[in-house]
Amino acid sequence: MLPMRKNCILFLCLCISVQTTVAQVLGGKNVFSFLDLPVSPQISALGGVNVSSQQHDIALSALNPALLRETMHQHLQVNYTGYFSDVKYAHCLFGYHLDRLNTTLAGSVQYIDYGSVTQTDAAGNIQGTFRPRDMAWQLTASRRYLERWHYGISLQFIQSAYQQYKANGLAVHFGLTYQDTSRHWQAGLVARNMGAQFRTYTAGNQEPLPFDLQVGVSKKLNKIPLELSATLHHIYQFDIRYADPDFQEGGIITDGDTLAIGNTTDKIFRHFVLAAQWEIGKYVQLTASYNHLRRQELGLSQQKGLSGFSGGVGVITRKLQIRYARSWYQRSEALNQLGLNVPLKEWSF
Q1: How many helices (H) does the chain have, and how many strands (E)?
Q2: pLDDT-derived band of residue 18, with 50, 70 and 90 as boundaries?
Q3: What pTM, to 2 d.p., does this model score?
Q4: Domain regions of the chain by residue span
Q5: By the 8 A CB rule, do 175 and 61 touch?
Q6: I need a surface site. Which of 5, 98, 108, 249 has the fewest CB within 10 A?
Q7: How many CB atoms lie within 10 A of CB 222?
């Protein structure tokens, strides 16, 4: 057990040392930012970030490859998202367990359609239309080590095309979990979006991927069917506030950006995503979460409303799982998602 843990720690340290040399403050300074979009209703309902949930939803392997388990053998899931400004995207994945190798695999594809966009020249003359798109193909492998450890890795090929501007790259995600089934808790650690951009939109302009290092824990309560989760993201960087170019009185100008002065508690709490999942009876699950970073950066200062909150409902049966989620980014803007999971092994064809 010790050799594996040492190797994992060394691997993560190497990844952090490489990625932090190019990591930037949040706010659109990375390429392929769509990789951080929640691909399924359950992920959205959990606040978009969770590395330790004990619910057997194959889509959670998109957040942490170590959450891909043997019980997800032949699970087929399709998710659809109605995003903002008529942008739509879909995600499909399938899991398969290899008994001989004691390894569980999953393959997925994500497609984002931005609709038809009018093309104009510098003077505003219409020259036609084009359809920008983003796509990502992912292969995940996960294994168990001893009784309580799981580890997994994902390779993701990314492709983007905006008219004549095209780019591609490769991302790697590595995750670990430790689960104590007797005490009903699980901890997780994941390093996401390690890799590089191969083809750039413009020559000589290579940009970093949206790297993140996350850690979290989930605990099922003993006397009520409730699971609580706490996840920290961007733990390698203390201040993750957006560098607002709109100068505010009392701000600090640093490297051309303006940073609003904030207290330490707010800076710390922006790393947290809190979630709760409640099982009602045998077939219904309710999920709710709070993302403080999303609320602080996207909510209107005087009218935050439900900004940063998310909720979802799932109907879970042996042969079918249907989930719906709604996430509030601003008071009047919410994201809706619908997902369908079919355990094919439970059907007789």
Answers
A1: 4, 18
A2: very low
A3: 0.85
A4: 26-118+128-240+262-276
A5: no
A6: 249
A7: 8
